From TrEMBL:
InterPro entries: Cro/C1-type_HTH (IPR001387), Lambda_DNA-bd_dom_sf (IPR010982)
Residues of the HTH cro/C1-type domain: 51-78
Membrane spanning stretches: none
PROSITE patterns: HTH_CROC1
Signal peptide bounds: none
Protein name in UniProt: HTH cro/C1-type domain-containing protein
Domain of life: Bacteria
GO MF assignments: DNA binding
Length: 136
C-alpha cells in the first residue's frame, strides 16, 4: 500500500473510531482539544488534527497509542487496519482499555492537584460510591 492510501485508510479508521465513541469526525478543533487534554507531550495544533482527519498525515506512534486508548480501539487496528468489522465496533476487545470523557479527564487532573491526604480521602469516597453502586 502506498503512503497516500495508507494515510487515507488511517483517516477512515480514525473517523470511524471517533463516531463509535460519539465524537464528531468532522471537527479538527474538537479532536485537537480532546487529544491535548489527554496527551502529556507537546500539544497538537488544529491543523495537525485536520491533516489526520483528511488523510494527509498519520500521528507518531506515541500519539497514535494515546488516541487508541482514548477511543477504546487497538492501536494496531487504528494504524494498520485489519479484518473488516474486526475492531470497528468501539469495544475494547479484551484489552481492558478505558475511554474517558472530557469531564473525567478534568476530574483526574483535579485529583492530581490535591495533596496526598485529600487524594486518599477522594479515593476512599469513590471506592465507597462504587461499592454502593454495585450493591443496587
Amino acid at each position: 500500500m502506498n503512503s497516500s492510501n495508507e494515510r487515507e485508510s488511517f483517516s477512515q479508521r480514525l473517523q470511524q473510531a471517533l463516531k463509535n465513541a460519539h465524537y464528531s469526525p468532522d471537527s479538527p478543533t474538537r479532536l485537537a482539544r480532546e487529544f491535548n487534554i489527554r496527551f502529556e507531550g507537546r500539544p497538537i495544533t488544529v491543523h495537525a488534527a485536520r491533516k489526520w482527519l483528511v488523510g494527509e498525515a498519520i500521528p507518531t506512534q506515541e500519539k497514535l497509542r494515546m488516541i487508541a486508548q482514548w477511543l477504546g480501539v487497538p492501536a494496531e487496528w487504528l494504524r494498520f487496519g485489519g479484518e473488516e468489522g474486526e475492531h470497528h465496533n468501539g469495544e475494547t476487545n479484551g484489552n481492558n482499555l478505558t475511554r474517558f470523557e472530557s469531564a473525567d479527564v478534568k476530574l483526574i487532573a483535579d485529583l492530581q492537584r490535591l495533596d496526598d491526604h485529600h487524594k486518599q480521602i477522594a479515593r476512599e469516597f469513590i471506592r465507597m460510591l462504587v461499592r454502593i453502586n454495585y450493591q443496587k
